[in-house]
TrEMBL record:
Residues 1-28 form the signal peptide. InterPro entries: Big_2, Invasin/intimin_cell_adhesion. This is Ig-like domain-containing protein. Residues 32-115, 135-211, 235-311, 315-395, 514-589, 593-673, 677-757 form the BIG2 domain. Keywords: Signal. The keyword Metal-binding does not apply.
């Protein structure tokens, strides 16, 4: 019993402590609402007057991840019931303005409270836009500003609300800015005619057509003369002016439509314009002449306009300067330039022109046209007089103590060209500058070469010439009329020279052989080279041929007898000869010394049109052999009879030739006899009967493909099948004893037989 009481006591103490330390809400029962939220919470909803919006509230529930719709159970309130009212979440817009709608929830069991807010902005809904304007939209160009106003009003979709003045907020446009413009309801008239004024606001549009008339029948222009009187300028009249006029005064007046004799000077109110301010400018009717040319002067006032064409001419056609053209000076030099004007082709009048320099840091020019070079750079010198002007570029160079040319010798092929080498000048500080453009060049022989447009152009050579030398001389222009040079550094007149070799182009290079075979360790003379030029001239071994050899198997060696080609090791190389614009190449074989060359066969016969190969074997000193058949460079003693290509011999016509070939300095020969082809071999007797001791001589005849018939008895090979019966020699048959034998004759690959019976 006592134990139960103690337990109850401690349970009560624990409960009291927890109630003090832990908030009440912690003990909320499952299913209680923790918080609520209006859809779109803390945002702003726009509603038009008279429109409604149903709001929805969801609550988060203790012990669940799902939400609960409590729209009808929360308490709704509005911050301004005159703007919106709210009933179970249904918001109704009453008038324009902004109000806050609040949803509240209070859980009585746990005393937990929750709120959610949203802002409602109510705007007016307009149904129509109207315009209020004066004078029924019929205006005159002299209408007062108070009559040129338009008010825009927007009708609200609420009979109890007055239309709203939206003049300042509406978008205004005019269909014809040449008649009128409008901004925030204020009309500005610009000319007579009709234009539609339109206002737009909140998606609504309203417009009306305005008509503008002019009280004037037009404008008139007048020129103020020297006596200050005014001369009217006719509608189609032009003003002829010269540069000396400098300034002309114009006036513009209105002509009333109601009375053509009534005018009013509006020169200071009119808008003046010139179509070409480079010719003439105009301000308040004062026209100022700028240069020669045509310009149209226009005066505009209240939609009316009047204009006149003015032509400004110079009293002279042109101005001439002496010296003429662009000029170049050195620092501290001066140049006196004179100016003259010309009316006719042959009449020049010296005048005192107005002189100016575009950059006085570079050079100055005084009233008499004397130019003084001050610093390195460029400037434009201009002379003007009575509407005509002339200018030129002046280049001022730093002081130069000497000239040098980049290249003093050039080679150019005939018909070609080359750029001029750079010419530099040394300044006082030792640095150089490029003066190439300031140098004038002359040629010692313009027949061969000249300088044109900054290039050296080759022209021609005399017959049988393959080259010619020309000297080009370049220098600064010497001091001329009006030029005072810098006496301390007289660079003018200094010259530089270039020696130009004009050469005929090489058409081709020919070598005395196509290939070479050299022995290791031996020095060999280079092949002979012939240069054939485009004009047909030829030179054998011309001076200037450059030889090169590729690889490490051979080397070019300079000896007392000239360059020699020496073999170093077994292999191959390419020997090249270059002369002027052409190069030729030949293959070189480097090998050990060959001690013996054997040719097979050393002589043979060939039928016409038949071919046969020659076999050539070379033997090195170590006994090894090599095939040389195609390397011998065979030459026929008569190519009309036999030709040879590589190791192949071809018979062309009947006859005999000697073929000669060489390798490593060893020469061998082969005899070739060309004969026609044997077609038929005939013997004078086919059968013979002889007695012992008797004899008979036969005749053997050969017929060839060329129709030739020859007796070849002595050249054939004769044999007897039984020499104890009969024997034969050179066609003579001798009977020995009784019996039978066959005598055969062979010649040219053919044979015939004779039957012999000895009785």
């Amino acid at each position: 019993m006592i134990a139960n009481r103690k337990m109850t006591y401690w349970m009560l103490v624990l409960t009291l402590l927890l109630s003090v330390m832990v908030p009440t809400g912690v003990f909320a029962a499952t299913g209680d609402i923790n918080s609520i939220k209006i859809d779109g919470e803390n945002t702003t909803i726009d509603l038009g007057v008279g429109k409604t919006k149903q709001l929805k509230v969801n609550a988060s529930v203790e012990g669940s991840t799902a939400t609960k719709d409590v729209t009808t159970t929360v308490v709704w309130a509005t911050s301004d019931s005159s703007i919106v009212k709210v009933d179970e979440g249904l918001v109704t817009a009453l008038k324009s303005g902004t109000a806050t709608v609040t949803a509240s929830y209070n859980n009585d069991s746990t005393h937990v409270g929750a709120k959610s807010l949203i802002t409602i902005k109510v705007t007016d809904t307009y149904t129509a836009l109207t315009l209020d304007y004066k004078l029924d939209g019929k205006y005159s160009l002299d209408s007062s500003a108070s009559d040129l106003t338009v008010a825009a009003k927007a009708k609200v979709d609420n009979a109890s609300i007055e239309p709203k003045d939206v003049t300042a907020d509406a978008e205004w446009t005019s269909s014809n800015a040449g008649v009128l413009t409008i901004e925030k309801g204020q009309i500005t008239l610009t000319g007579s005619g009709e234009a539609t004024i339109t206002a737009k606001y909140a998606g609504l549009t309203a417009s009306f057509k305005a008509k503008v008339t002019s009280p004037y029948s037009g404008l008139k222009l007048y020129q103020v003369n020297s006596s200050s009187s005014e001369d009217e300028i006719g509608e189609k009249e032009d003003l002829e002016l010269i540069m000396a006029d400098k300034e002309v005064k114009l006036r513009v007046k209105t002509v009333m439509a109601s009375n053509s004799t009534t005018t009013s000077d509006v020169s200071d109110k009119a808008t003046w314009a010139s179509t070409d301010n480079g010719v003439a400018t105009v301000e308040d009717g004062i026209v100022k002449i700028v240069s020669t040319g045509k310009a149209t002067i226009t005066a505009s006032y209240l939609g009316e306009q009047v204009k006149v064409d003015i032509y400004v001419r110079a009293p002279y056609e042109t101005i001439l300067l002496t010296p003429s053209g662009d000029q170049t000076l050195f620092i501290a030099e001066t140049l006196s330039v004179s100016a003259g004007v010309r009316k006719t082709a042959n009449e020049t009048t010296t005048v005192t022109a107005e002189w100016s320099s575009s950059n006085k840091l570079i050079a100055t020019v005084d009233d008499n046209g004397v130019i003084s070079a001050k610093a390195a750079g460029s400037t434009t010198i201009n002379a003007s007089y009575q509407g005509v002007s002339k200018s030129f570029k002046l280049t001022v160079l730093p002081t130069v103590t000497k000239l040098e040319v980049e290249k003093e010798q050039l080679e150019i092929f005939l018909g070609g060209s080359a750029g001029l080498p750079k010419v530099t000048g040394t300044k006082l500080d030792g640095e150089t500058i490029d003066l190439s453009d300031e140098i004038t060049w002359t040629s010692s022989n313009e027949k061969y070469a000249v300088v044109e447009d900054g290039k050296i152009i080759t022209k021609d050579l005399d017959d049988k010439m393959v080259s010619a030398d020309v000297t080009l001389t370049g220098k600064f222009s010497e001091a001329g009329t009006g030029l005072t040079p810098n006496a301390n550094f007289p660079i003018r007149g200094t010259t530089v020279t270039i020696k130009v070799s004009v050469k005929e182009k090489v058409l081709t290079l020919l070598a005395s052989q196509d290939s070479m075979s050299i022995v290791i360790g031996a020095e060999n003379a280079l092949p002979e080279v012939t240069a054939v030029f485009e004009n047909g001239e030829e030179q054998v071994n011309p001076t200037g041929v450059e030889w090169t050899v590729s690889g490490s198997n051979a080397v070019l060696k300079t000896t007392a007898d000239g360059k020699k080609l020496k073999g170093l090791s077994k292999g191959s190389a390419t020997l090249k000869a270059t002369f002027e614009n052409k190069t030729l190449s030949m293959s070189v074989t480097i090998e050990p010394k060959i001690s013996k060359i054997v040719v097979e066969p050393q002589s043979f016969e060939l039928n016409i049109k038949k071919s046969k190969s020659i076999k050539v074997t070379g033997y090195y000193t170590d006994g090894k052999k090599v095939t040389l058949s195609s390397k011998m460079g065979w030459v026929s003693s008569d190519e009309n009879v036999v030709t040879v290509s590589g190791s192949s011999v071809k018979a062309v016509a009947e006859g005999s030739v000697t073929l000669t070939g060489s390798y490593q300095g060893q020469t061998v020969t082969v005899k070739v006899n060309v004969i026609p082809k044997l077609m038929k071999l005939e013997v004078s007797e086919k059968k013979l009967q002889l007695t012992p001791g008797s004899a008979k001589t036969l005749v053997l005849t050969a017929t060839y493909d060329n129709g030739k018939v020859a007796t070849v008895t002595g050249s054939a090979t004769w044999t007897s099948s039984k020499t104890n019966v009969a024997k034969v020699s050179a066609g003579k048959i001798e009977a020995i004893a009784k019996g039978s034998t066959s005598i055969k004759a062979q010649y040219g690959g053919k044979s015939v037989s004779v039957s012999v019976s000895v009785k």
